[in-house]
Amino acid sequence: MKVRVYVMLKTGVLDPQGEAVRHALGALGFDGVESVRQGKVIEMELADGTPEARISEMCEKLLANTVIESYRIETY
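^ Phosphoribosylformylglycinamidine synthase subunit PurS, sequence as received from the core. Prediction below:
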């Protein structure tokens, strides 16, 4: 079973990398970019039938800093 975990900073948490990307896009002539939020995608291959609760536990303990980040799990 394949899993993707999307990790993003929570709303209200400053994103200096996203702001740097927004600024760089403007400098390259890409007008109209009002904001950028940068995150990460983690892909894993797990044993079939791995419960989503187990994947959430992975996120809570290692993959996301849940104080400032949120995550979303997608299986495919």
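Strands lie at 2-9, 39-45, 69-75.
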